[in-house]
Amino acid sequence: MKFYTRFVFLTPPESRDPLIALLSELPFDAFAETEDGFITGIQGNNPGPQLFQTIDSLKAHLPFHYSVETLANQNWNEKWESSFDEILIGDFCQIRAPFHDINQAVEHQILIEPRMAFGTGHHETTRLMIGWMQEIEYDDKVILDHGSGTGILAILAAKMNAQTATAVECDEGAFENLKENIILNQTPEIECVLACDLTGFADNTFELIMVNITRNTILDQLDELVRVLQPKGKLITSGYLEKDRKIMEEKTGGLSLQCLGTKLENGWVSMLFRKP
User: Fold this and answer.
1) What angle do CA 127, 132, 138 make, to 5 degrees?
2) pTM for the whole structure
3) Strands 37-43 and 31-34
4) CA 36 to the chain's CA centroid
5) Closest CA to 22 of 46, 48, 56, 49
6) What are the structural domains, with CATH classification, of the chain?
7) Digits of tens for pLDDT over the chain (276 positions)?
8) Angle between helices 152-159 and 172-184 (to 10 degrees)
C-alpha cells in the first residue's frame, strides 16, 4: 500500500501566505487552506529528518504549529475531493468538480478531478493568472503552460481557441492528474510534456507563456523562458509574494523584458511582461 504524509499547519491569518510561500520551496504536493491555517503533504511515510529541520527553522521567522499524520493515499484523496469547492471568476470561468452543477451563465467551464496536485484554482496565484487571461487575446496563439499542475491554465487557453497549447509538468503525480483533466474537458489538442525544464523546446517557439510556480524556479528558468518566447511574445508570471516583486523586476529588466502590468491579491503578485 502507498502512503501519504499529511502536515496540518496552524498559523495566524497574516502568516499563512508567507509561510506557504516558504514551504512551496520544499517537496510538498499542494496546499489546501483551512480556517486556522492550511493542510499539505508529501508522498511516502518517511519524509526524513532534514525536512523537519527545515520546517522547524522557519519558526524563527513566522509563528506556527504543525502536526503530522501518515495516511493511505486513497483516504487522503477522498478527504481532498470532499472538501473541493467550485470556483467562480465572475461570468468568465467556472472551475468545478464532477459533482458540482454547471453554471450556465459562465463563459468557460473547466472540469477538474480533484487530486493532490497544485493548481485547483483556489489559490490567489491561479486566480491572478486567470485574471490576465480574461484580458488577453488567445485566438490562434501558440501557448505554453509551464508548471501546469492540474492543467487549468492550458485547458482554459484551449477553450479560448489557442492554436496550440503545451502543458509542461515536472511532478509525475500531477502529470497523471493533468492528463486526466484534459480528457475530462475534451481538449485532446493539448500536448502534455513530463519535464522540469524547457531544454526540449526550440528558440522562439511560443507566442504566450504562462508560468505559475515558485519564485526561485521562475528566476532559475527565466533565461530559458525568454529563449523559447517569440519576439513581441508575452510572459505571465505568478507564484511569488509582493516582497519579491523588486527582484523579479531586476531579473526581467536585465533580460530586456518590458513589464506591462501587475496584479495583486492578498500579498501575492502576478506580472505580465513582453519580449522585445
Assistant:
1) 120
2) 0.75
3) antiparallel
4) 22
5) 56
6) 3-82 (3.30.70.120), 117-274 (3.40.50.150)
7) 567 788 999 999 888 888 988 888 788 866 777 778 888 888 777 788 999 999 999 999 999 999 998 876 554 455 555 556 788 888 999 988 877 888 889 999 998 876 644 455 557 888 899 999 999 999 999 999 999 988 999 999 999 999 999 999 987 878 888 999 999 999 999 999 999 899 999 999 999 999 998 888 899 999 999 999 999 999 999 988 888 899 999 999 999 999 999 999 888 899 999 999
8) 30
Cell 484534459 found at? 182
